[in-house]
Amino acid sequence: MFKKAHRYLRNPYYALGYDLLKTHPNWMSDKYFIKVFWKQVMDYPLDLKHPETFNEKLQWMKLYDRNPLYTLLVDKLKVKQWVAERIGDEHVIPTLAVYDSIDDIRLEDLPNQFVLKCNHDSGGVVICKDKGSFDLDVAKARLRKSFDHNFYWNYREWAYKNVERKIFAEQFIQDKLTPEDLMDYKVFNFGGEPRLIQVDFDRFKRHKRNLYDTAWNYIEARIQYPNAPQHIIDKPKALEEMLRMAERLSEGLHQVRTDFYLIDDRVYFGEMTFYHGGGYERFEPHSLGLQMGEWIKLP
Q: What is the C-alpha to C-alpha distance for residues 289 and 274, in angstroms, rounded to an integer?
């Protein structure tokens, strides 16, 4: 009781917010939630009037940069047509089926290998590599958990708030060189210019990521997950093509991350996101977060 009273006396604004965060987070305004959650995660107050780092500016964008186009671009299903019109449908992974309900999924209508995804969140994915051993009930239970949840409430990422929820089946893709681990190439773009590339691998076991500049020089830094200098990969043959696509897709946007897969040296679009890690991932060194924050020119 004494500790709780001391908390309120020391800083009633954050103490009350923390209690609400644990009990009724959806009752809080976006601004209040973001400031309280930031304080708990980052351990210092968020200054929305003078944001400097990459993460700080992402919080500002959640509240004040509400371009209606963002809702389309974070929709993993609707964005495909938008992307196809800009870089060609040959770079978009084919959609096999679209469902309004989890219960509409029918295995007999799908090939032996496929991927099921929610269009409105991050992580609502189920991979089927062999339909004969695929447990559809387990897959539906996992997807339903994502499908029934509005991803916006997690970190108040505004762009996701009004996405019309769907389930869709997508063609399964696999790189012959790394059949067990499909590496994810994430290009950070600022004002339509690619500036940094993040490569994620071993995501389902011991998640690691390496950072490169656009000339494919390895950067001795990390964002949240450990990097692996021993896993520095050769410069992709399709790097320049991927960067041109990233530039085309990010044209006219203050900042956006465009994700791609490289399959047998062919570039496939993955997704677009405006709030990397919700704006809460740790940067080491701190100067990297400051540098990326300088690249964002807020409106």
A: 16
Nearest to 26 by CA among 153, 121, 144: 153
Cβ atoms 299, 65 nearer than 8 A: yes
Tally of CB atoms within 10 A around 8:
13
Q: Tokens in use for 220?
A: 């001795």
**How many C-alpha atoms does 232 have within 13 Å on its Cβ side?**
11
Region class of 265: left (phi > 0), else alpha (psi between -120 and 50), else beta? left
Residue with tokens 């040296």: 265
* Sequence-ordered list of residues with C-beta below 8 angstroms from that of 24, at least 6 positions apart, any chain: none
Does residue 202 surpass a pLDDT of 50? yes
Q: Which residues contact 160 (CB under 8 A, 6 or more apart)?
A: 71, 74, 120, 121, 150, 151, 152
Helical spans, DSSP H, in the chain: 2-10, 12-23, 30-42, 54-64, 69-73, 79-87, 136-147, 152-155, 239-249, 286-295
pLDDT tens column, 105-162: 999 999 999 999 999 998 889 999 999 999 999 999 999 999 999 999 999 999 999 9
d(CA 283, CA 277): 11
pTM score, two decimals?
A: 0.91
Determine contact, residues 254/270, Cβ cutoff 8 Å. no
Residue with tokens 């991350």: 257
Would you give the distance in Å from CA 172 to the centre of its chain? Answer: 20
Amino acid at 225: Y
CB contact set of 282 (below 8 Å; sequence gap of 6+):
223, 224
